[in-house]
């Protein structure tokens, strides 16, 4: 859902505004891209091609930093139900691409065409994807202003009739005319900026009202699900069943979009070492399910039961799975509030003793009582939201940021190691060239950052000339920060030209990780001091097609790092923001490698059906009419050994089937963790084929492992 940020407490002073964030919305061919170019004073947006995704550009306008996000347009007059889901998702996403939220939404309308009632309804439906409060932050931007001639815009609005008049009034009678053919007329932009500032001041100096992102944590049966239902005002969570996985629900509450993620609970009083790995990983995952991170973590505690020292230790251990900085973003949420009766919560805390008092103090004396039996009492939710907003304001207007996982890729001597040292703020990586992946971790800006460096290839080298070990290590790199990296940073020295052979080399090596790699990749220009006063955009333009192709392939995501100036922490902060923005654009998803990727060889014949199901700690693939074999250099093992069903773990045995598995040279750790679920008569042998269907479940194996190399052997699927 849309994730623009917060309210007046996060606000800014319009009089001292040093930056301005704008989102352009409208139907297709309304003039959004041209308007973005006019606002920024240069060709930043492609005004010819049509994109299916949001585009973000920045520039200095009149001495201030201006960010403009263009959302993809819908078909003119189209009903919302007829607009593709991707377009709707991108519209919702647009407001989150300029955190903490846009100051203004500009609704772009062509002035030279009539504004029909069907168009009015279409605009209304699409804008209200961003909540009903969107109108108080919107200005109608009329394009093709030269068409008006001597006619005033007020006269045009009056002449157009009810549809356009309704729209202008809905936007608080805020409108502006832009002539994109007169980009040298800076006055029209100055006046637009003044109107935006005036609107912001009238909105109590707020950004566009955004979502609230909340994660519920706590032991089992603490009341997390019921609390989620009370917050959202609907039975969105199952308050009876215990779930082993995170559950995410959303709804508009009090004019803003609220996202609530419930993490699975641990056993009360349980030590962390006794909690299942799946539960611990789900707790760690929870904060990444509401990108770029939750505003608040609500630690749910039952008020009617005593809080013992063992329980305190259990809570501490489980919450610190999310890093030690978790406490500054946590509020204790007491459930079963009706049990208190007339007893103030402060009196209860004092009476409970040191353990509960320690917890409250650890959370900055932030707590709230919820009575889930009184869901109609909206005041308790309003007060909770106010406490969250107050906490966010105290945290320097930030939400809780989860762990960040980064993989560095690039050719040899591209500056990967130096860049990673800059990010971690210390000499963690040896600048000598490693033959294997290197992984380091550190705390950066209050979050846990994991960085993996993959070994580089020779510059301009074709993939076929790169050693197999290097290729295997590149493939392995993404599995070293499970469940997958948030970002792949492609290191390119800015002081050397990228030739066409270099471009092809980069493409071949990155696509070892599949064709999906590009949507998770940012080009990281190293040796940034070489640029001097030259803007990176000018450098990209002067370099020509090869570099431009690469930058566009990465979604126009790039960043410059000066590793000679490590004291400049802002360059790392800005890089982190770009990573978060990319993750948000990827719907909060990190990079994952499917178990059996496109690089695995399938036979020439068409296969009937392939279905990939993803679950935490388990990757399930279901195929029809496929066979499995192990190969080395595309040859069968000369003397395969056999593993019959009697030697399999009990959960893998089926008394009514004989299971014959070739496993020569297969490591024990893999053989022990592959569960073969038999749906029909199944043989796995060098010459057999499957029945109509089978399922393989890989548990405890990294996604990168399945379908790849095991001690020189490779698992491969072939059509019979």
Fold and architecture overview:
By secondary structure, the protein is of the alpha/beta class. The chain folds into four domains: 8-202, Rossmann fold (3-Layer(aba) Sandwich); 212-394, P-loop containing nucleotide triphosphate hydrolases (Rossmann fold, 3-Layer(aba) Sandwich); 404-585, P-loop containing nucleotide triphosphate hydrolases (Rossmann fold, 3-Layer(aba) Sandwich), CATH 3.40.50.300; 610-718, no CATH class. Helix content is 27%, strand content 21%. It has 19 helices and 27 strands. The strands form six sheets. The protein has a six-stranded mixed β-sheet with strand order 2-3-1-4-5-6, covered by helices on one side. Helix 3 (117-127) runs parallel beside helix 5 (162-170), helix 9 (309-319) packs parallel to helix 11 and helix 15 (500-510) runs parallel beside helix 17 (545-553). The longest helix has 17 residues, at 186-202. The two termini are 44 Å apart.
In a nutshell, what does this entry contain?
By secondary structure, the chain is of the alpha/beta class.
Task: Compile the SSE list and pairings.
Layout: E1 19-25, H1 32-40, E2 55-61, E3 64-70, H2 85-94, E4 104-110, H3 117-127, E5 138-143, H4 153-160, H5 162-170, E6 175-177, H6 186-202, E7 212-217, H7 224-232, E8 247-253, E9 256-262, H8 277-286, E10 296-302, H9 309-319, E11 330-335, H10 345-352, H11 354-362, E12 367-369, H12 378-394, E13 404-409, H13 416-424, E14 438-444, E15 447-453, H14 468-477, E16 487-493, H15 500-510, E17 521-526, H16 536-543, H17 545-553, E18 558-560, H18 569-585, E19 610-615, E20 618-623, E21 627-631, E22 642-643, E23 661-662, H19 668-671, E24 674-677, E25 694-699, E26 709-710, E27 713-718
Parallel strand pairs: 1-3, 1-4, 4-5, 5-6, 7-9, 7-10, 10-11, 11-12, 13-15, 13-16, 16-17, 17-18
Antiparallel strand pairs: 2-3, 8-9, 14-15, 19-20, 20-25, 21-27, 22-23, 24-25, 26-27
């Amino acid at each position: 859902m849309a994730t623009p940020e917060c309210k007046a407490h996060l606000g800014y002073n319009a009089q001292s505004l040093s930056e301005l964030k704008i989102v352009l919305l409208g139907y297709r061919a309304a003039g959004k891209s041209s308007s973005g170019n006019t606002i920024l004073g240069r060709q930043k947006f492609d005004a010819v091609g049509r994109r299916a995704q949001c585009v973000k550009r920045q520039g200095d306008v009149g001495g201030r930093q201006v960010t403009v996000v263009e959302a993809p347009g819908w078909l003119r007059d189209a009903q919302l139900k007829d607009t593709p889901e991707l377009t709707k998702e991108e519209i919702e996403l647009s407001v989150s691409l300029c955190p903490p939220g846009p100051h203004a939404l500009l609704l772009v309308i062509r002035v030279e065409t009539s504004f029909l009632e069907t168009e009015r309804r279409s605009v209304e439906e699409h804008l209200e994807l961003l909540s009903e409060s969107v109108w108080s932050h919107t200005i109608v931007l009329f394009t093709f202003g030269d068409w008006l001639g001597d006619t005033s815009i007020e006269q045009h609005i009056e002449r157009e009739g009810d549809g356009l008049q309704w729209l202008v009034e809905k936007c608080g009678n805020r409108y502006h005319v832009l002539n994109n053919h007169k980009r040298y007329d800076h006055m029209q932009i100055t006046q637009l900026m003044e109107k935006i500032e005036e609107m912001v001041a009238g909105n109590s100096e707020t950004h566009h009202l955004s979502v609230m992102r909340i994660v519920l944590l706590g032991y089992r049966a603490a009341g997390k699900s019921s609390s989620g239902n009370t917050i959202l005002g609907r039975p969105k969570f199952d308050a009876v069943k215990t779930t082993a996985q995170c559950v995410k629900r959303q709804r508009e509450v009090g004019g803003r979009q609220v996202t609530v993620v419930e993490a699975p609970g641990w056993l009360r009083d349980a030590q962390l070492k006794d909690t299942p790995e799946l539960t611990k990983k789900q707790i760690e995952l929870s904060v990444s399910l509401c990108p770029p991170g939750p505003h608040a973590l609500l630690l749910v505690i039952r008020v009617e039961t005593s809080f013992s020292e063992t329980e305190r230790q259990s809570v501490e251990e489980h919450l610190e799975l999310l890093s030690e900085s978790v406490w500054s973003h946590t509020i204790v949420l007491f459930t079963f509030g009706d049990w208190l009766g007339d007893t103030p919560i402060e009196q209860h805390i004092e009476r409970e003793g040191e353990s509960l008092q320690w917890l409250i103090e650890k959370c900055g004396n932030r707590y709230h009582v919820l009575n889930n039996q009184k869901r109609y009492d909206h005041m308790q939710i309003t007060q909770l939201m106010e406490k969250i907003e107050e906490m966010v304001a105290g945290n320097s207007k930030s939400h809780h940021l989860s762990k960040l996982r980064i993989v560095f890729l690039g050719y040899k001597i591209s500056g990967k190691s130096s860049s990673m040292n800059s990010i971690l703020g210390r000499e963690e990586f040896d600048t000598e060239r490693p033959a294997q992946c290197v992984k380091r971790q550190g705390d950066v800006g209050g979050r846990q950052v994991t960085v993996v460096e993959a070994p580089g290839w020779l510059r301009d080298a074709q993939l076929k000339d790169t050693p197999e070990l290097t290729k295997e290590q590149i493939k392995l790199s993404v599995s070293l920060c499970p469940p997958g990296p948030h970002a792949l940073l492609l290191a390119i020295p800015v002081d050397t030209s990228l030739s066409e052979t270099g471009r092809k080399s980069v493409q071949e090596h990155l696509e070892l990780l599949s064709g999906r790699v590009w949507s998770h990749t940012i080009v990281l220009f190293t040796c940034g001091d070489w640029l001097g006063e030259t803007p990176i955009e000018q450098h990209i333009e002067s370099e020509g097609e090869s570099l431009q192709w690469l930058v566009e392939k990465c979604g126009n995501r790039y960043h410059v790092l000066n590793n000679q100036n490590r004291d400049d922490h802002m360059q790392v902060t800005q890089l982190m923001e770009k990573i978060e923005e990319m993750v948000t654009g990827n719907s909060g998803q990190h990079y994952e490698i499917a178990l059996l990727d496109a690089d695995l060889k399938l036979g020439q014949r068409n296969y009937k059906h392939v279905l990939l199901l993803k679950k935490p700690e388990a990757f399930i693939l279901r195929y029809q009419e496929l066979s499995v074999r192990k190969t080395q250099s595309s040859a069968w093992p000369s003397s395969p050994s056999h593993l019959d069903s009697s030697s399999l773990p009990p959960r893998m045995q089926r008394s009514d089937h004989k299971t014959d598995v070739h496993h020569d040279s297969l490591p024990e750790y893999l053989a022990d963790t592959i569960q073969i679920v038999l749906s029909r008569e199944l043989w796995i042998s060098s010459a057999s084929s499957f029945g109509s269907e089978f399922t393989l479940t890989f548990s405890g194996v990294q996604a990168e492992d399945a379908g790849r190399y095991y001690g020189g052997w490779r698992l491969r699927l072939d059509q019979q």
